[in-house]
Design brief:
The complex is a heterotetramer of chains A (95), B (112), C (317) and D (500). Chain A is mainly α and 95 residues long. Chain A has 3 helices and no strands. Chain A has one domain. The longest helix of chain A has 33 residues. The termini of chain A are far apart. Chain C has 317 residues and is mainly α. Chain C has 3 domains: 76 residues, no CATH class; 32 residues; 196 residues, no CATH class. The radius of gyration of chain C is 23 Å and the shape is globular. Chain D has 3 domains: 141 residues; 115 residues; 200 residues, no CATH class. Classes of the chains: A mainly alpha (95), B mainly alpha (112), C mainly alpha (317), D mainly alpha (500). Chains B and C meet through α1, α2 and α3 of B and α1, α2, α3, α4 and α5 of C.
Chain lengths: 95, 112, 317, 500
């Protein structure tokens, strides 16, 4: 029978997957690049956070869990600032 | 259809794609991209050979993987030299073309 | 029916599609961007092939550093709008080349499928030799790179030095000695500066960790060096650091540190361990780590110098 | 496992020393900066030549290849270096031509003022790199190690082509780099298939395990294709003329004389050392056919060139075609295959020395007269007697007139083709000689006719004598004793000796 932790992992990773799909749909459907950028940046960071959260109980030891959190933090930092840079370039381009 | 044979077919496809791009694209940077594609295809072939050579407690054969690591760094050095030549050619002449008689057209000193 | 093949098939399909887009797209810059995406996807294929070391190298060097190199070149070259439209190949040439390329790909695929069923492998010898001079190394790839095939690795460092000399030689005569052109914009975006301030220390730490753990786990001098090189490039892009003058004494010594130390220890191996590049049994691990420290230094300095390009006559006299 | 478990034979360390001298020179010159790079290179050349001669003496004395397993690890896992007869001969030739090129360029790339100059540092480091790469190619015995040596050679040769920075030299260097990279990546793919099929990359071990399976044929085709691109054989020769004509004189002498021979040497290693067990009839005929086409096309194109350096470069394309006639003429273990083998090696050496001498004298001419337009060289021979004597004697060897090395090579080729019943190969040999006579005549007629020519600067005596010494070596090769041909046979499989 699925233990509580496994249930939690499935739920978290499922939610993460949902946000990734939402981000991708946003990328495809939104009219211009700024809104697409917005959709991608928000959805993917959140999606990755949830997936990382879901994987933490499955990590073999504390160090593995810490590494997962570090990965998530790095992706949020680089994803966020890259989105900001692209947004600035887009806005400067349109002016 | 084990993952390694699948990767082998991907490697073969990449080599074919890269060759197609290398021959067709006149722009040297596009040729360089195609060359890097061929390179990664060749390294994938090394990767399958390593994966198939799993024995004696290792899940891979370390020798071809060591060769791939050396190969990737050498391929990068080659791309860096090619990019330096392309950019210099562009800044020197404003044009990026490979055919040698582009320079012997009127306007260069040894035009015949 | 485990889900595994779906991942592999999906990954293979994705890699080939992105590679096709690199070749097919008209626009140069779009091709370069899709090549960078392709380089990072390839790292996943290496994970599926049980090659974490190679995946690290592919992601760091193949995807990352080559990506920066090609994107900066693509950005400058994409500006050529006025150039005469390049002679686009005729459709017959396209079909012919396509047929030739497809033929080669099929021949190669057939050759791969016909590789012998009981695959010959040097893994057993590598494991057996692990009890020999290359003793004490958990990571067989580092043992192969630094101990069994050390001649290749030392030569490959010399190749890096030659590439740096080649890239520098492309510069102008009067610019010799100047630093290469700065990587980042004159007024760097605050977001870039923030990213550099956050990423560089952590990345440097991870790079040193990857190098240090490389003796026993996936990692090593190449991957650690590539990560440190990437961090220096991020700092240069955020204008936190400027590319050094190419005749700076420390730069020259750092570039030759790897091969020079490798050579000296190799020569010392003759008197101590009886053969060139032989390590005294029992002392292999400390010596290998000592050599790798200098190799990390050489790689971490050589890759950014290759990306920064030849000395520029722009700014300083 | 072969009986050859011993990790080294006496004198084995000489092989390592032969590689380490130039590599050490590169590291030292790069660290100490351009001002000393010239002195370091010139200082190293005598030692390098001494080591090459010592290796040749050791091989000749023991009558068996000299072997050295690096790190004390015998082949399948470790890398081995092996010098047999032809390696030793090529090492000595490389040492001679590189020393000549170094002393020829001593003044042009001298460190003038206190600051380090771009061209000086680049030239001297790349010259030593070419020496290191060629040494490894001649003594290497592991296919992946040879791949790294090929890359070293490419990285050393390409920047030399565009050292003076003009746009056409940059375009020529870029084309050369793209062809060379395609060549080495195709070579690497072949190496990957060989490792996948047999689990080792050591040449003698591979030679024992190879069977004519489709995988081996594909791998051999890929490796040969890659090496042909790097040797600029006929269909893939487009990059060579602009690259060799635009490089500085000393560099084009080394490029045409030696660098092109490096990848040809590996083709020899592949077909005669790795795959002797395979029925190579059709492949040898195909390579011979491509060679003949190269001889004729190269000769015709050389006839039509306006610039002297381009003419000499196209003559290289033609003479490379001769080299590939060795495959049909030296195949198998017949009586005539030894003659074919000696002919091929003699052609390699004679062309190396003659072509290096011609490029050096073309350099002296270009500096003295300011241009190298053949039509405008009227009466130049009276003003530059020694230079044109060297060019004429070099042409003698290219045409194959006695007493030059070129003559004995072509004569042995004719003998082998008649003895083996493949008389077809005598046609390209003779036509090639005629074409060579044609383009030599085109150079010498205006030069020897009387007329005034404006001189920009006086030629340097020492440069002319260096070129003259090289061409005298090319002529002296015509008198090579039988012992020289026996020396080349050492370590050649199917020559009644297992390729240990």
């Amino acid at each position: 029978m699925i233990s509580a932790l496994d249930l939690f992992s499935i739920a978290a990773i499922g939610a993460g997957a949902f946000f990734f799909v939402a981000g991708t749909i946003g990328l495809l459907r939104f009219p211009d690049s700024l809104t697409r950028l917005h959709a991608l940046a928000k959805a993917d960071n959140l999606g990755l956070g949830l997936v990382a959260l879901g994987l933490i109980p499955r990590a073999e030891n504390g160090l593995g869990a810490l590494k997962l959190i570090l990965i998530w933090a790095l992706v949020v930092a680089s994803g966020g600032s890259t989105a900001q840079l692209i947004g600035r370039a887009l806005r400067r381009g349109r002016k | 259809m084990t993952p390694s044979t699948l990767a082998g077919l991907v490697g073969a496809a990449l080599v074919g794609l890269g060759l197609y791009g290398l021959v067709l694209h006149p722009h040297p940077l596009r040729k360089l991209l195609a060359f890097n594609l061929i390179g990664s295809g060749v390294f994938l072939v090394f990767g399958i050979v390593a994966r198939r050579g799993a024995a004696a407690g290792f899940s891979f054969d370390p020798v071809p993987q060591a060769m791939v690591i050396t190969g990737i760094v050498v391929a990068f050095a080659a791309s860096a030299l090619a990019v330096a030549l392309i950019l210099r050619l562009y800044s020197e002449s404003g044009r990026v073309t490979l055919d040698p008689d582009a320079w012997t057209r009127p306007g260069s000193e040894d035009a015949k | 029916m485990s889900v595994l093949p779906f991942i592999d098939v999906g990954l293979a399909f994705l890699v080939v599609t992105v590679a096709c887009s690199t070749i097919i797209t008209r626009d140069l810059f779009a091709a370069v961007v899709s090549y960078v995406a392709y380089g990072l996807l390839l790292a996943f294929v290496w994970i599926r092939l049980h090659a974490p070391d190679v995946a690290l190298t592919e992601a760091a060097v193949g995807g990352g550093v080559t990506g920066v190199l090609l994107i900066t070149a693509g950005k400058r070259l994409a500006a050529i709008k006025k150039a005469a439209p390049e002679a686009h190949p005729t459709t017959t040439l396209k079909l012919l080349t396509g047929a030739l390329a497809a033929l080669l790909a099929c021949a190669l695929a057939a050759a791969i499928l016909m590789l012998p069923d009981v695959p010959p492998s040097l893994a057993p010898e590598a494991a057996a030799a692990a009890s020999g001079p290359g003793a004490g190394l958990g990571n067989p790839i580092t043992a192969v790179l630094i101990s069994y095939r050390s001649f290749d690795t030392m030569l490959e460092k010399v190749v890096l030095i030659l590439a740096v000399v080649g890239v520098w030689s492309v510069g102008a005569d009067k610019a010799w000695g100047n630093p290469p052109a700065p990587l980042g914009r004159p007024g760097p975006y605050p977001a870039m500066v923030f990213l550099a301030q956050v990423l560089v220390p952590i990345g440097a730490l991870i790079g040193i960790h990857v190098f240090w753990v490389g003796a026993d786990a996936p990692g090593g001098a190449f991957q650690g060096g590539a990560l440190l090189a990437a961090m220096w490039m991020v700092a240069m892009m955020a204008r936190l650091g400027e590319p050094p003058r190419i005749d700076a004494r420390w730069l020259r010594l750092a570039l030759i540190a790897g091969p020079a130390v490798f050579l000296i220890i190799g020569l010392a191996g003759i008197s101590i361990a009886g053969s060139f590049f032989a390590y005294p049994p029992g002392f292999a691990k400390p010596i290998i780590l000592f050599i790798e420290t200098f190799m990390v230094l050489s790689i971490a300095v050589a890759l950014p110098m290759l990306v920064a390009g030849p000395p520029s006559e722009g700014n300083r006299p | 496992m072969t009986a050859d478990i011993a990790t080294t034979t006496p004198g084995g360390f000489l092989l390592v020393l032969a590689v380490l001298l130039p590599v050490g020179g590169i590291i030292l010159s790069f660290a100490t900066g351009g001002r000393h790079a010239g002195q370091i290179t010139l200082g190293l050349t005598p030692f390098g030549s001494a080591v090459a001669c010592a290796i040749a003496f050791r091989v000749g004395q023991s009558g068996k290849p000299v072997f050295y397993a690096i790190g004390g690890l015998p082949p399948p896992l470790g890398i081995a270096l092996r010098a047999d007869g032809i390696s030793a001969v090529m090492l000595v030739a490389t040492a001679a031509i590189l020393t000549a090129a170094a002393f020829y360029a001593r003044e042009k790339f001298a460190a003038r003022d206190v600051r380090e100059s771009r061209s000086a540092l680049t030239f001297w480091i790349l010259l030593q790199a070419i020496w290191a790469a060629l040494t490894i190619i001649f003594v290497g015995s592991d296919l992946f190690n040879l791949y790294v040596a090929l890359e070293l050679l490419t990285f050393a040769a390409v920047p030399l082509v565009c050292i003076d920075g003009r746009p056409e030299t940059l375009a020529a260097a870029l084309r050369y780099l793209l062809f060379a990279l395609f060549g080495s990546i195709s070579y690497l793919l072949g190496v990957a298939l060989f490792y996948g099929a047999y689990g080792t990359l050591d040449i003698p071990l591979l030679a024992q395990r190879v069977q004519p399976t489709p995988v081996v044929w594909t791998a051999a085709a890929l490796i040969t294709g890659g090496l042909l691109a790097k040797t600029a054989l006929f269909p893939l020769h487009l990059w060579l003329p602009p690259a060799h004509a635009n490089a500085p004189a000393a560099a084009s002498a080394v490029l045409s004389g030696l660098v092109v021979k490096g990848s040809f040497f590996l083709t020899l290693r592949l077909w005669f050392y790795v795959l002797p067990a395979l029925p190579t009839g059709q492949v040898a005929a195909a390579l011979g056919g491509l060679g003949s086409a190269a001889v004729i096309v190269g000769g015709v194109l050389a006839l039509r060139q306006a610039r002297l350096k381009l003419l000499i470069a196209y003559s290289t394309v033609s003479q490379i075609g001769y080299l590939f006639l060795i495959f049909p003429l030296a195949a198998g273990a017949h009586a005539w295959s030894t003659i074919g083998w000696s002919a091929g090696l003699m052609q390699v050496l004679a062309h190396a020395f003659a072509k290096a001498a011609m490029f050096l004298s073309a350099g002296v001419l270009a500096e003295a007269v300011g241009h190298d337009q053949i039509a405008k060289l009227v009466g130049a021979a009276r003003v530059l007697p020694l230079t044109f004597l060297t060019i004429a004697l070099g042409g003698l060897s290219l045409m194959g007139l006695p007493p030059s090395g070129g003559f004995s090579a072509k004569w042995l080729m004719l003998q082998a083709s008649v003895a083996s019943g493949q008389w077809i190969w005598s046609l390209p040999i003779l036509t090639g000689g005629l074409l060579a006579a044609g383009y030599m005549y085109r150079i010498l007629t205006p030069a020897l006719s009387d007329g005034e020519i404006s001189m920009e600067s006086a030629p340097r005596r020492y440069q002319e004598t260096i070129a003259f010494v090289l061409v005298m070596i090319a002529l002296a090769l015509g008198f090579a004793p039988q012992a020289f041909f026996d020396f080349i046979e050492i370590g050649r499989p199917l020559a009644g000796e297992d390729p240990s």
